[in-house]
What does this fold into?
Amino acid sequence: MESEKKLDRREFVRLAGLAGVTMAFSGCGVPEAARRRPNIVFILMDDLGWRDVGFMGSRYYETPNIDRLAREGSFFTAAYAAAPNCAPSRASLLTGRYTPRHGIYTVNDPARGEARFRKLIPTPNRTELDPGATTVAEALGSAGYVSASIGKWHLGGDPVFGPVSQGFDVNFGVRFGGHFDRWGDVPPPDGEAAAEDEYLTDRLTAEAVEFIEENRHRPFFLYLSHYAVHTPIQAKAEMVMKYEGKEPDGGQRDPTYAAMIDSADQGVGRILNKLDELGLSEDTVVFFFSDNGGFGPITSMAPLRGSKGMLYEGGVRVPLAVRWPGRIEPGREIATPVHGTDFLPTILEMAGVSIPVDEEVDGVSLLPLLQGGAAPIRDAIYWHFPAYLQSDGSVEGPWRTTPAGAIRKGDWKLIEFFEDGRLELYNLRDDIGEERDLADERPEKVEELHADLKAWRRRVDAPVPTEPNPEYRPIS
It folds into this structure.
C-alpha cells in the first residue's frame, strides 16, 4: 500500500487528508462568524479506570495536569461510557447514538472465549462505522471547523484513511504494535531524528500540538485518541523508576502502568500550555474522558465492582473533566449521571451547530448542566451488550460478561443477563460497589426497570440473542 512507503511527514499527512487545509484556512480568509466559535479538544484515553486519576481520588498515579483540567473546569463522578469496551464506545461518542443504532457491540468477533461455554449464539457485530452516520467531525465541518483524528480509530477501515472518510480533514493514524517503535512505518516529525524508542503517547501529543499551532487562526476540532493505557503495559524506563518503591493505593500498585498514565498526563500539560501560549485557552473547550473502565488485572476501580468488559460500574463508569474558561464554573463536582452519547449534542451546542433533523441522536446536551443549569431531561441511561467477553484473569470462571443489558434510572440500576434471564438490582446511592443485589427485596422496582429496559430495546430495535449454541457444554 502507498501509505506504507517511507514518506516524509508532509507527504504522510497529505495522504491522510491534510492537503491544503492549513493554507486554505489559516489567516485572514476565515469568516468572522466562524472565528467566534470555540475550538474543541477531546482527549480520549483507552482503558483508563474511574479512579486512575488524582481528581477521582488516586493517591498512587500522579496526574497534576489532568487534575488542573478538572480544577479549572468541572468534573463528573457518574460519567458513563456507552459500552464496556472500545469500539462500541467510540462509535457512540462520535455519533451520539446508542449501540443498537450503529450495530457495533464489541471488538471484532462477538463469540469470544471457548464455544463450549457459550450458551447462546451472540448477535452479529458490525466492525465498521456506517458511512451514512453523521459524526461530530462532519457536523462541525458544515460550520467551518477543521477536524483532526490523531491516534486510535478502531472503527473499521484502514487506520490511516478511515477517519478521513468520516469527516476528519486530518488524520494521524498508526498500525499499532506496541507503545514504542513497533507501531508502523511512520516517519518522525520534520527536523527530528528517528528514535528507536520513540514513545507513541509522546508522538501523538506532538502531532496534536502541531495541529493546534497550524490551525490557531480558525475553529478546530481535535480528537486526540490515545492508545495509552491499553495493553501491552509499556512505559519509558525513566518514568517507571519514579514509581518504583512508591506506596501502593489498594490495587493501584504497578509502576509501569503508573508511568504510562504519567506520560499521558504530561501530554495533557503540553496541550494546555500550547493553548495558553497561543492565547487560545478561553476560546477552547477541553474534554478528558475514557472509552471504558480500567483493565482489571493491572489497576483497581475500587470501590466500584468490576472492570473493562463488564456492565458493572467498574466497566462503564469513567473519569470525565470539561474545561471552558469563563463559560464553565471552575472546580465544580457534578454527580448527575451522563453518558458517552451526550458528547455529540454537547459539542454541537457549544459550537452553535444544529443536529441534522433526520439524525437519530440519543444523547442530550450537557451544556446547560455545565453552566449551572438544570440536569438533562431523560428517563434513564441504557446499555446493550449482546456478546461474550472471555475472562481476563481478574474474575473467576470463563467470562467477564455473557450477553447482557442494563439500565440506570435515578439511583437504581438493573442488569439483565440474556443467557438465563437473571436480573440484578442495585441502589447506587447506597451501594456504589454493587455488593447487595436487591432483586428479591424489591420486586416492584425490578418489574418497573425491566419494563423500561424492554421498551427501550423495542424503540431502538435492539436484538436479544436467543438461539441456543449447539456447541454449548454445561460446566459440571
The longest strand covers residues 39-45.
